[in-house]
Design brief:
Two copies of one chain form a homodimer. Chain A has 221 residues and is mainly α. Chain A is built from eleven helices and no strands.
Amino acid sequence: MVATRPRKKSAVADHRPRVARERRARTRARILAAAMDVFAAKGPDAPVIDDFIRAAGIARGTFYAYFTSTDELLDATSAWLEDSLIHSIQAEISAMDDPVLRLATGVRLWLRWSIEDRAWSTFVVRSRFRGPLVERQLTADLRLGLASGAFKAPSVSIARDLVVGTILETMRRIVDEKVPASLPEDLARLILRALGLSERLAAKAIGAPAPRIKRPNPALP
Amino acid sequence: MVATRPRKKSAVADHRPRVARERRARTRARILAAAMDVFAAKGPDAPVIDDFIRAAGIARGTFYAYFTSTDELLDATSAWLEDSLIHSIQAEISAMDDPVLRLATGVRLWLRWSIEDRAWSTFVVRSRFRGPLVERQLTADLRLGLASGAFKAPSVSIARDLVVGTILETMRRIVDEKVPASLPEDLARLILRALGLSERLAAKAIGAPAPRIKRPNPALP
């Protein structure tokens, strides 16, 4: 693709000063933030490019300077969300060396975020977004916990389906209803019990500190 | 609606002999069976009426004698599936007076059926089918179990989201992969543990007989 670009444009991009690069990043972030709302409202298949242009308040030419199709934009939006939220969660749990604690804290942070940011929840539910980073972290922790005997389940995949399915169905409820503030901890407890933890160990994992996370702006350099 | 129908047509329907009624029921069942496959392949929104006509091998005029839109057909297909499978499951569990046993057996029968009939699983996953009868039975049993102390969860809705979400995510796997024959019992065990049952009581509920169910043909009179 790069080779077919007009020579002049690529030369301009290479020597663009910092301020222009930052403006470009801001415009990209603005399109992605608008895209999340559009995909949340209309699902992954129905939106047309005009929807994104209108929501972001940009010109058609500007849109095409960043993305060439709604599919490409959906991929970029998922990647942006994953970068922002999942990296924030991973930053919090990577210092923990117990897979049970990492799983419990990850579930709590994910659900807290879902309650606080309903547009995000709607996007996840409607787009059937599955972040590969989340899957990797989750299956790694389940595998470690099963190997150590902390978790009890006949396979990683059954345990993974319970965790992911429960969270997704709960997010559908979050989109539609007001939920209690205790929901993240309540649900983490049920999940840990399902994975074979005793009440006492489940309560201990849920009682650990789970710092408030803040969405960074990953589009800025 | 009935009042606006042409008089002649309704008179014909009223006096139609049994054999014609049965033929009509068979054609309807044929359209519904084809519709389930079409919705499973294309999802709830994409199919057009030509897809159903082709899949059922009927004339356009025949289709419109039964259904007027794809939305109406989607509703009828869901109702037909609900009638067939859920009534069969209910017939098996209604004699049980323990809500824990009813829930465990319902989950096992539902998943067994999902493994045996992949077209049905695909339809449920893609259409986001939620049978009101299933919801009613499930929430009733959860409520009874919570009231008696057999189940432990902070609310019926959290327990319901865990059961429904886990089953739906498992059905997504069933659509894509070969799963072990023990999956229904394995998953029922995890769900019962999540709901606060001990290993021993969970094993007891899962060990109960769960008769093989056969899909009836609900379209026949």
